[in-house]
């Protein structure tokens, strides 16, 4: 509870004014260490960063990309599967079952910590409304609750498997999510006022000491907003929070995301595949008319591939980690920028440190306690590793190896790639209502640069790409040649367009889009800190640079990437250098060599060209966006 000398009846007669410049008798900004003290802020921030670090460690070492719901339906995100297979092949250390158990318990502990943190700071803020908690302190409450809530959501995503077997705990978490989301959304509403911490001169002055309860009363008045950036930022923030909690709730009830994939991906994809199949048959027919159908077919296929890449990334746990990192960084920057604004005067000019508010930086018992309490989750994590349940898990795991491991070791022996080939199913694939995978035929040894035909992995295991075991090896590269006999052009994957994750061009598309997301997020954080501290999310959603980049240049860059790959097939075939680019050194000597000694000059050139293409697309999209946005590209 706040100090009684800070608790006074709020005066809200100014809320009916369109412009509050020169407002008289403004309450001063007084310190409130219980909300924005240095120890409180550090304690909440470090807890969020500790959770983020643990979730990243959990993802790299323990996370299982294979999911199964209560009805037995399975789903594996191929991006997570292949990325984790690569990372775990590089990392020599293999976590024990005891470590996995302790990691899961630790994530559960920290998720509860973030839930309690978010609820505590919001309840503390609401309890001080009648004591005229200032807009400045309410903003801090909102941002602490912001990244605490998103950290909690991400932890829930990582614990989907745990809650599948603990339905009672799942119901409790769902109820907690509803409460936390409701409190946070209501807390965001007053931040849309044109007078709210007005450093951009939208409503006539910067008055951080004005009571927050007055802004709640202003919600029903015409003076609340005139459609400026503040209300857009608030609306976007509410939308982001609402959609994030709805998505997390759906995934908690259905970890395979069967519902969302059915209505947002599978059903629309069925119509798109029928269209592609129609264009494929027209473009594959004989005569001059087939050439006319080539361009719409290639453009449609490129759009289909880019959309599938976007869906794979959106459904992956990798994006969850990226989004959590961005949300925490965003909340941290906004939080500390808000604390720095205490030194601004009513005209928005920085006057240096506010001597009154400096009291919040004093280390007292109330500020030291939150940092000391951070030892509790750390001790709980250590205890989770050392307790008897974790030891029992390890003993059981060693004593009774799973049948999956035995099966995997029996089927993961190297296969002669010359004996198998990925091909088309000549009987069933022509039926647009049939979505069964294609057959397997003999094929060559070498990975291809082309857009090969569809379906199963060429690794001798005959494992369906979309239904692998929990921790499978990475998807093999396609092994068909550039051109099949009778074809004069690169052959694209055929209907029913099974998953493309094993194709190198598809992997590069995913890598390109992930890099684009990271660059956009990094630039957004940089501009948030350097350009506009208080406009919020609407600054980026209404900014010409970001609109051109995200809506125009980013899709164009992905299309150009596929075009370059397609043209490269022609060049490689014409030059006859496929063998030189793809042949491994082991194939000529017949003896096993370490990975680094298998690299040939051709392989080096091949990988360098792939990476140069991705780097070139990134530079092209960024600098073209800046050029098209104009010299005032940061204006709204």
Strand order of the largest sheet: 1-2
The dominant shape is: globular
Unreliable segments of 5+ consecutive residues = 1-5, 402-472, 474-487
Structural class: mainly alpha
Number of strands: 4
C-alpha-based Rg, rounded: 29 Å
Q: Helix content range of the residues, please?
A: 55-70%
End-to-end Cα distance, whole Å, is: 41 Å
How would you characterize the largest beta sheet? 2 strands, antiparallel
How many domain modules? 4
Average pLDDT figure: 75
H/I helix tally:
22
Order of helices and strands: HHEEHHHHHHHHHHHHHHEEHHHHHH
Strand content: under 5%
What does this structure look like?
By secondary structure, the protein is an all-alpha fold. It folds into four domains: 40-257 and 315-399, no CATH class; 258-314; 412-502, no CATH class; 524-636, no CATH class. 59% of the residues lie in helices and 2% in strands. The protein contains 22 helices and four strands. The strands form two sheets. It has a two-stranded antiparallel sheet. A two-stranded antiparallel ribbon has the order 3-4. β1 (66-68) and β2 form a beta hairpin. The chain is globular, with a radius of gyration of 29 Å. Mean pLDDT is 75; it is low at 1-5, 402-472 and 474-487.
SSE topology sketch:
Blueprint: H1 33-36, H2 38-61, E1 66-68, E2 74-76, H3 78-90, H4 97-127, H5 135-158, H6 160-164, H7 167-188, H8 212-218, H9 229-253, H10 258-284, H11 288-314, H12 317-340, H13 365-372, H14 375-386, H15 388-399, H16 403-411, E3 421-422, E4 440-441, H17 504-530, H18 538-541, H19 544-575, H20 578-582, H21 585-589, H22 601-629
Antiparallel strand pairs: 1-2, 3-4
Helix pairs in contact: 2-4, 2-5, 2-12, 2-13, 4-5, 4-7, 4-14, 4-15, 5-7, 5-9, 5-12, 7-9, 10-11, 11-17, 11-19, 12-17, 17-19, 17-22, 19-22
């Amino acid at each position: 509870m706040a100090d009684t000398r800070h608790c006074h009846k709020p005066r809200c007669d100014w809320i009916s004014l369109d412009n509050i410049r020169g407002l008289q008798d403004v309450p001063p900004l007084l310190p409130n260490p219980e909300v924005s003290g240095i120890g409180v802020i550090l304690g909440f921030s470090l807890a969020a960063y500790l959770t983020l670090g643990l979730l990243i460690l959990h993802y790299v070492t323990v996370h299982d990309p294979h999911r199964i719901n209560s009805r037995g339906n399975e789903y594996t995100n191929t991006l997570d599967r292949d990325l984790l297979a690569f990372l775990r092949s590089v990392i020599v250390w293999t976590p024990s079952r005891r470590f996995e158990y302790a990691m899961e318990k630790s994530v559960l502990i920290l998720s509860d910590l973030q839930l309690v943190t978010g609820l505590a700071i919001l309840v503390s803020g609401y309890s001080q409304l009648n004591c005229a908690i200032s807009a400045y302190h309410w903003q801090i409450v909102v941002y602490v609750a912001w990244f605490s809530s998103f950290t909690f959501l991400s932890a829930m995503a990582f614990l989907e498997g745990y809650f599948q077997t603990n339905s009672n705990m799942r119901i409790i978490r769902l109820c907690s999510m509803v409460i936390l989301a409701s409190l946070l959304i209501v807390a965001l509403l007053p931040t849309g006022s044109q007078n709210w911490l007005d450093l951009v001169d939208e409503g006539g002055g910067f008055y951080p000491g004005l009571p927050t309860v007055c802004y709640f009363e202003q919600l029903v008045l015409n003076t609340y907003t005139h459609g400026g950036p503040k209300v857009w930022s608030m609306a976007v923030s509410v939308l982001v929070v609402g959609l994030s909690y709805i998505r997390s709730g759906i995934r908690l009830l259905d970890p395979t995301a069967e519902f969302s994939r059915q209505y947002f991906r599978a059903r629309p994809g069925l119509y798109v595949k029928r269209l592609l199949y129609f264009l494929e048959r027209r473009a594959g027919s004989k005569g001059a008319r087939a050439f006319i159908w080539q361009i719409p077919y290639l453009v449609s296929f490129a759009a289909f591939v880019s959309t599938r890449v976007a869906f794979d990334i959106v459904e992956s746990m990798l994006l969850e980690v990226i989004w959590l990192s961005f949300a925490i960084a965003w909340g941290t920057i906004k939080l500390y920028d808000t604390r720095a604004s205490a030194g601004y005067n009513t005209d928005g000019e920085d006057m240096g440190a506010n001597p009154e508010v400096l009291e919040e930086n004093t280390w007292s018992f109330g500020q030291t306690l939150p940092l000391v309490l951070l030892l509790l989750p750390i001790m709980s994590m250590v205890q989770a590793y050392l307790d008897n349940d974790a030891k029992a898990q390890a003993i059981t795991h060693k004593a009774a190896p799973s049948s999956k491991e035995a099966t995997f070791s029996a089927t993961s022996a190297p296969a002669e790639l010359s004996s198998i080939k990925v091909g088309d199913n000549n009987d069933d694939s022509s039926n647009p209502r049939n979505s069964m995978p294609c057959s397997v035929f003999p094929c060559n040894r070498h990975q291809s640069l082309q857009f090969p035909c569809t379906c199963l992995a060429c690794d001798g295991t005959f494992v369906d790409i979309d239904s692998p075991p929990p921790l499978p090896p990475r998807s093999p590269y396609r092994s068909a040649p550039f051109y099949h006999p009778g074809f004069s052009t690169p052959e694209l994957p055929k209907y029913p367009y099974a998953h493309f994750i094993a194709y190198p061009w598809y992997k590069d598309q995913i890598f390109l889009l992930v890099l684009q997301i990271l660059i956009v997020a990094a630039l957004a954080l940089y501009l948030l800190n350097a350009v506009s501290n208080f406009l919020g999310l609407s600054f980026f959603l209404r900014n010409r640079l970001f609109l051109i980049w995200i809506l125009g240049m980013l899709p164009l860059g992905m299309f150009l990437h596929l075009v370059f790959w397609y043209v490269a097939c022609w060049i490689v075939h014409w030059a006859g250098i496929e063998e030189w680019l793809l042949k491994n050194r082991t194939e000529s000597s017949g003896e096993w060599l370490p990975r680094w000694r298998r690299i040939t000059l051709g392989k080096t050139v091949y990988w360098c060209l792939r990476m140069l293409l991705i780097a070139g697309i990134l530079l092209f999209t960024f600098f073209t966006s800046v050029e098209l946005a104009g010299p005032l590209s940061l204006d709204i």
